[in-house]
Amino acid sequence: SRPQKVCLCPFLPVHPLKVSTSLYIIQHPAEGSRVLRTVPLLAACLPPDKCKILVGRRFNEDRYPELATVCRNPNTLILYPGAEATNLEEVAVTSSSPSVMIIIDGTWSQAKDIFYKNSLFRLPKQVQLKPSISSQYVIRTQPTNTCLSTLECAAVALSIMEKNKSIQETILHPLQALCSFQLQHGAQIHHSKEHLLKNGLYDKPMPKNKRKLRRMELLVNNVKI
Prior knowledge:
By secondary structure, the protein is of the alpha/beta class. The protein has helices spanning 39-45, 65-72, 88-94, 108-116, 150-161, 165-184, 193-198, 210-220; strands at residues 22-27, 51-55, 76-79, 86-87, 100-105, 125-128. It has a six-stranded parallel sheet, sandwiched between helices. Strand 1, helix 1 and strand 2 form a beta-alpha-beta unit. It is globular and about 45 Å long. This is tRNA-uridine aminocarboxypropyltransferase.
């Protein structure tokens, strides 16, 4: 649905990737109005039955019985970092049966709100990715240097679960093309907030909210948040 000269179709896989892992993308409603989204690119890389998108803020068993069943499945994982999360690589080593992975799509504050205010998402095993790569989604500002877009999270996670590194490369290809097109047409590279703060380049007023100010101090001092 883009103009032909910036069409991303040539950068998508010719055929949807064959994967055994199913993704459930829990998308905050505000993401739908963003122009440069990564989830449509992700969905275009996978078979429809392997990438289901649910839009909303609150998810209960009465309104989402299928999701409730998925959350109770012992093979379901939810990708959300934190003290209770296990590194996905460790889980993938012991996993032999097809898995389901839930990924929350939204800003970090929106994702946090969805995760903590929906009890269903506390049922699956919580996993996280090792912060080993920097985001290639350079046309959006990330909180830290190791924060990834939804598409990047899915690409890394699927490559781990499927034990196939080429999956990550294939899914990242259209994202790289998107960023390249945007930069060619006037977009600027966005460094992470962490990078800007540490290098004295943050040009916005500092927040008055003590909690937000504290988070920014932690970023500068290399404290994991």
